[in-house]
Design goal:
Elements (H helix, E strand, L loop, with lengths): L10 E4 L3 E9 L2 E7 L9 H29 L3
Antiparallel strand pairs: 1-2, 2-3
């Protein structure tokens, strides 16, 4: 991991076409602006984790439902 110190209005460039700019730093909160091509997906990590957890939960629930239906149909 690269760790940088930046001030408000400072920017970093990633590759040829992504720029991350520090918009402001207030009370421990950093606001960033990200300029990138439309085909680059940008999502907050906590939202990505939430989606992954929901998918796992849905998959687990679906597995339980299928097993229950199978057991009910073929119950001895």
């Amino acid at each position: 991991m690269l760790v940088l110190t930046r001030k408000a209005n400072d920017a970093i460039v990633i590759g040829d076409n992504i720029t991350v700019t520090v918009i402001s730093v207030e009370g421990g909160v950093v606001k960033l602006g990200i300029s990138a091509p439309k085909e680059i997906s940008i999502i907050r990590s906590e939202l990505l984790q939430e989606v992954e957890n929901a998918n796992k939960a849905a998959s687990h629930h679906a597995d339980d439902t299928v097993l229950e239906a199978f057991y009910t149909k073929f119950k001895p």
